[in-house]
Write a structure and sequence with these properties.
single chain; alpha/beta; Purple Acid Phosphatase, chain A, domain 2; seven-stranded mixed beta sheet; 7 helices; globular; iron; CNP_phosphodiesterase-III; Calcineurin-like_PHP; hydrolase; Cyclic 3',5'-adenosine monophosphate phosphodiesterase
Length: 294
């Protein structure tokens, strides 16, 4: 199974049309079996921004998709709306369901709404009811299927100088995911990528194998941060019988196309990074890649 993982589109003033068009072409060349969009489709949760995002998603390859809302998909300054009906436009235009399940022949993917518009507008939350939703799905999932979780907010901070805090009570969620046999967590929010393992941050939770974490940077906006400042990225994920392979793509301003930057391989069932972690393309460097893939 091949997954196209994009995030943080930010339709509105930050959106970059030329990058969006390049992403559309790249998506066609990837030819994914599943498309994952891990939140922040809009900049300010306005109806016209959701309409633009929905039109963009319709132009992507015809594949099953998992879409979750991000904190920018609920109103920030429209206070009454944020407290009374925060997902009104998202649910009308993008998806009625905030917590979703996609079942394929190879995997079960659970999309969780990590937004908390009434209490934690930026850092998000996963309330116990959403963890219960995840538990019910995976407890009835056949053991031979891969189990994947998608949420906008990050369960682990990117290991860099910006030192962002993880989502509150992330360790509680990670422990549950380990107990449920989750192999892969996909997310966004940080506006820069991180590809690694929960064992980097939570050694007591699933110390035998951990869970592979794949964070996407902003795929189509000018809001990249850290080492991906003003950069745009997405991830291509291949699940085979024995491995999870992640190819990290970055937009090249000179050529106007997305090109592979690095590749990462994890053994299925162990969650440990194998020796096949390579920097590729003109942007890559061994030193950068060694730090990036910790």
């Amino acid at each position: 199974m091949k997954i196209l993982h994009i995030s943080d589109l930010h339709f509105g003033p930050p959106f970059l049309p030329r990058v969006g068009e390049s992403l559309r072409r790249a998506a066609e060349s990837v030819s994914p079996d599943v498309i994952v969009v891990s939140g922040d489709l809009t900049q300010r949760a306005k109806p016209e921004q959701f309409e633009q995002a929905a039109e963009f998603l319709r132009q992507l390859p015809d594949a099953p998709r998992v879409v979750v809302p991000g904190n920018h998909d609920v109103p920030l300054y429209r206070i009454i709306e944020r407290f009374t009906d925060p997902h009104r436009h998202y649910q009308r235009i993008i998806s009625k369901e905030l917590n979703t399940v996609l079942r394929t022949d190879e995997a079960v993917i659970v999309g969780l709404d990590s937004t908390a518009p009434r209490s934690a507008i930026s850092n998000g939350r996963l309330h116990p009811s959403k963890l219960d939703f995840c538990r019910r799905v995976f407890e009835n999932t056949p053991p031979e299927l891969s189990r994947i979780v998608v949420a906008h907010h990050h369960f682990a901070p990117a290991p860099d100088y910006l030192r962002d805090r993880a989502m509150p009570k992330a360790k509680r969620a990670i422990k549950l995911f380990v107990d449920l046999g989750v192999e892969l967590i996909l997310g966004g929010h940080l506006h820069r990528s991180y590809i690694g393992n929960t064992l980097d941050f939570y050694p007591a939770a699933g110390r035998d194998h951990g869970i592979v974490i794949v964070q996407s940077g902003t795929s189509t906006s000018r809001r990249g941060r850290g080492r991906e400042r003003e950069k745009n990225t997405f991830n291509e994920i291949d699940l085979s019988q024995h491995a999870i392979r992640v190819t990290h793509h970055i937009y090249d301003d000179d050529t106007g196309i997305f090109a592979p930057l690095s590749r990462h391989e994890f053994a299925r069932g162990s969650g440990r990074l194998s020796t096949q972690t390579d920097a590729v393309g003109k942007h890559g460097s061994a030193e950068w890649e060694a730090e990036f893939s910790r």
